[in-house]
Amino acid sequence: MIDTRRLGQGEVRVGAIALGAMGFAGWYGGADDEAGVRAIQRALDEGITLIDTAEVYGRGKSEAMVGRAVRDRRERAVVATKASQGSPAYLREAIDRSLKHLGLDYVDLYYLHRVDAEVAIEDSVGAMAEMVRAGKVRAIGLSEAGPETIRRAHATHPIAALQTEYSLLQREPEFELFPLTRSLGITFVAYSPLHRGLLTGRIRTPADIPDGDWRGKVPRFQGANLAANVARLAPLEAMATKKGVSMSSVALAWILRKSENVVPLVGMGRPENVDRNLEAMRVRLDEAEVTALDAAFPVGCAAGLRYPEEAMASLGREAPPKRAPAPR
Ligand SMILES: NC(=O)c1ccc[n+]([C@@H]2O[C@H](COP(=O)([O-])OP(=O)(O)OC[C@H]3O[C@@H](n4cnc5c(N)ncnc54)[C@H](OP(=O)(O)O)[C@@H]3O)[C@@H](O)[C@H]2O)c1
After folding, report:
1. Mean pLDDT, consecutive 10-residue segments, the chain of 328 residues?
2. Is the CB of 265 within 6 Å of ligand 1?
């Protein structure tokens, strides 16, 4: 069994590494459904308990696979899913659809996937709080929300988790979001902690990205940007070789060392990768090694945008203000 972390301010604890099921919908090339289900079961058996999906991952496909995988291990699993829009009417229907895809009568954590540009966060979180009262949802999370929106949301109903991108190649959250989430008792769930596979060392050139793979549309994975980002991995690779472990394990161990409030959420679509990533729990980085990695991957070092241009505006978004009710 692996170390655990407290989820928000509640009683629930989760394995210090979480499993993401986005890849099950084929975002990163062809996915193997049976291997995905076995990966979740293997993870749960080893103490990786927070299992993350979203309705948008294959329009319910990933949720259905998660539901299948956890059915006979429900007590051990902390199932999280996400809604893609923030209007109360949308959210009320979305949770029922997600529960149906999952084949479950509640989810442990329900996230707003992106802050809605048209809806006050108090209204989105208010609708999610109704779901908590109705027993459909145990705790509420936000993903890629801006700091002021996090404060407003948390004042409406306790927020258990903030899910935002964080890795050696994406360190911006260290400045504002880490201290903010820690001070509010919100767990920081670090998505794409292997930088969508780049920090595994298995992607070296555009030819390593299969046709139809979403990463082909991401500036960081294209042309000269990809070459620059791959060249930056040399110190990570050297440290992993010296320690006799994989690059991924060092990249995850660095996150685990950074803060006790952070849970790296790793995409794992096959049981072998679950086993490989469990190694990270055994990797010990001393102060000098953490400092060396910090220096090799300074904030802002990655070349190119982390999402396609058109998706950038929705990241770290602040919600519009809550309007006063119209006078009668
Ligand atoms: N909230 C959001 O907006 C948002 C955005 C993106 C992701 N997420 C969540 O975060 C999760 C993880 O992010 P991610 O999947 O983008 O990126 P990631 O965890 O950084 O990387 C996942 C990729 O690395 C591979 N991999 C994992 N461990 C490996 C190992 N030890 N050796 C070699 N390859 C390995 C996976 O392959 P296999 O799949 O073949 O095992 C997959 O292709 C997602 O599944 C999703 O749940 C959330």
Report:
1. 95 97 91 95 98 97 98 96 98 98 98 98 98 98 98 98 98 98 98 98 95 95 98 98 98 97 98 96 96 98 98 97 84
2. yes
| Ligand 1 nearest atom to the CA of residue 199, by list position | 20
Task: Give the bridge partners for 110, in sequence order.
Answer: 81, 140
- The burial of 310, by beta-carbon neighbours within 10 Å (0-12 exposed, 13-18 middle, 19 or more buried), is given as exposed
Closest C-alpha residue for ligand 1 atom 47:
20
State the Cα–Cα distance between residues 111 and 142, nearest whole angstrom.
5
Going by alpha carbons, the residue nearest to atom 21 of ligand 1 is 196
Instruction: Assess whether 57 carries a catalytic annotation.
Output: yes
Q: Which two tokens stand for residue 191?
A: 């998505």
Smallest CA separation from ligand 1 atom 12, residue: 267
CA 277 to ligand 1: nearest atom: 31
Mutational test site, ligand 1, from 56, 200, 246, max ligand atoms within 8 Å of CB? 200
Q: Where along the chain do its domains lie?
A: 4-314
How many CA atoms lie within 13 Å of 38's alpha carbon, on the beta-carbon side? 10
pTM for the whole structure: 0.98
How many other CB atoms sit within 10 Å of the CB of residue 304? 15
Cα separation, 83 vs 95, whole angstroms: 7
User: Is the domain covering 4-314 a CATH 3.90.25.10 domain?
Assistant: no
Q: Which among 55, 63, 125 has a CA at the least distance from the CA of 88?
A: 125
Nearest CA, atom 25, ligand 1: 197
Most informative mutation of 22, 61, 162 for ligand 1 (most atoms within 8 A of CB): 22
Measured in Å, residue 326 CA sits from the centre of ligand 1 at: 45
- CA distances to 36, 239, 266 from 276, rounded to whole Å, are 15, 17, 11
